[in-house]
Amino acid sequence: MTQNQNQTSAATKKISTYLTLIVLIVVVLAIVALILAASLYYSGDYTAAGILAVIGLIALTMSTFTLFQSQRQAVQMKIEIPKVMTTIECKKCGTKTVREYQRGDYVYKELDACPKCLDTKQIITAIYKEVKEKEKTYNV
Ligand SMILES: [Zn+2]
Hints:
The longest helix has about 40 residues, at about 1-40. Helix 1 (about 1-40) packs antiparallel against helix 2 (about 45-80). The chain contains 3 helices and 4 strands; from the N terminus they run ααββββα. The protein is rod-shaped and about 90 Å long. It is an alpha+beta fold. The structure holds zinc ion. Zinc ion binds near residues 90, 114 and 117. Zinc ion (ZN) binds next to loops.
């Protein structure tokens, strides 16, 4: 489970780094095109200047859009990873506590004494994936 999460985030990181690099190259090329367009405009070649300016602007718009889109995807991928929760119960007074899963948790594992009863040990009664956030993502 933990390994899966790490692999997913590593893959996301790799993709976004790769995309950022491509976008950066396109942005640099677009800026070069715009500078060339400006110098061509001043030297009187309006047609070439216009073409270069359009190419530069399209490249800038597209790279900005790609970067924005990839960041949105990365955020969505992060949310989709469900949290694993552990339910702790005291058999004597029935006090239920829910906390995030910790390494080494298993059902029927005895934990520290109940804060209310003090003499009875709390037991893990359930370990489950938090599905609330996942449903939210599907609705969006
Ligand atoms: Zn208790």
